[in-house]
């Protein structure tokens, strides 16, 4: 998997730390040496040593013994401490909100799903999300699992600008167009927040799984059929967004000019035809529409 390369600039300290944390997570219980971390991130050994020292000081990484090396003394191996901290995941779907609490290895330690009307407005949606995050972290504290919460990842239907953290004209919910969701939710939660399309988030999760099948060669497509239709693309281990960040937005291609009305305002969109077939229980027709039948 392409993990990217680091940059020796103070402004990118958190970026470089994230690179190292990602490699520690991928290494699992076997661990990884500082020299290997330097080689895979492109950082200098000195930079890696500083980062790993901070991670050890924060309790996020520990020594995991020594590993024999060729032509030198055995190398100290470091491994992640999965339970040392948590992160929050939020999926804002058209009719429900799912909140999860995960450890540093991505293992779910708490989850809750509640009804949600995505069209109810940003304030209502954010209030619901804030309440679910508080409930999850509060439950962990009551059960003796209180850990630092490092941030929140939010997934929702697109299209959206993941760099700016702003939804665009979400199909069926135009009121979200241009709303600064990432920054507004970060202010409410008091946590760093990242925002991405739900299909991209799902594809990335599959790419990061340590037990993911290797026959895809690090490249695959994730197809989502739910209250909407879309895809997430992974090429060489990284999410592919396209020049306009709209890769995977194929649900609103017109297939039938006089077809059923779609939430986007058009008629006969692939999404409308497929979901109508699913609603009728006609999975064969849904597969045919998708080109899989």
Automatic annotation (TrEMBL):
Highest taxon of the lineage: Bacteria
PROSITE patterns per the UniProt record, alphabetical: ROK
Stated name of the protein: ROK family protein
Signal peptide range: none
Family the entry assigns: Belongs to the ROK (NagC/XylR) family.
Source species of the chain: Streptomyces solincola
Matches recorded under PANTHER family: GLUCOKINASE, ROK (REPRESSOR, ORF, KINASE) FAMILY
InterPro entries, sorted: ATPase_NBD, ROK, ROK_cs, WH-like_DNA-bd_sf, WH_DNA-bd_sf
């Amino acid at each position: 998997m392409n993990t990217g390369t680091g940059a020796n600039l103070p402004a990118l300290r958190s970026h470089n730390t994230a690179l190292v944390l990602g490699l520690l997570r991928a290494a699992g219980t076997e661990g990884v040496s500082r020299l290997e971390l330097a080689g895979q991130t492109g950082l200098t050994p000195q930079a890696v040593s500083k980062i790993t020292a901070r991670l050890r000081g924060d309790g996020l990484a520990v020594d995991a013994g020594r590993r024999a090396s060729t032509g030198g003394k055995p190398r100290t191996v470091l491994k992640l401490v999965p339970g040392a901290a948590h992160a929050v995941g939020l999926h804002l779907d058209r009719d429900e909100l799912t909140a999860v609490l995960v450890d540093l290895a991505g293992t779910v330690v708490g989850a809750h799903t509640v009804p949600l009307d995505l069209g109810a407005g940003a304030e209502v949606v954010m209030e619901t999300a804030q309440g679910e995050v508080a409930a999850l972290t509060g439950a962990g504290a009551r059960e003796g699992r209180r850990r630092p919460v490092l941030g929140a990842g939010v997934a929702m239907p697109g299209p959206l600008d993941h760099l700016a953290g702003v939804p665009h004209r979400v199909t069926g919910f135009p009121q979200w167009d241009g709303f600064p969701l990432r920054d507004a939710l970060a202010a409410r939660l008091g946590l760093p927040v990242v925002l991405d399309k739900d299909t991209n988030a799902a594809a990335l999760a599959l790419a990061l799984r340590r037990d993911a099948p290797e026959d895809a060669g690090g490249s695959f497509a994730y197809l989502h059929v739910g209250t909407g239709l879309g895809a997430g693309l992974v090429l060489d281990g990284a999410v592919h967004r396209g020049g306009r960040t709209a890769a995977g937005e194929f649900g609103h291609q017109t297939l039938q000019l006089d077809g059923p009305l779609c939430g986007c305002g058009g008629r006969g969109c692939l999404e409308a035809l497929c979901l109508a077939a699913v609603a009728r229980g006609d999975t064969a027709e849904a597969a045919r529409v998708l080109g899989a039948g």
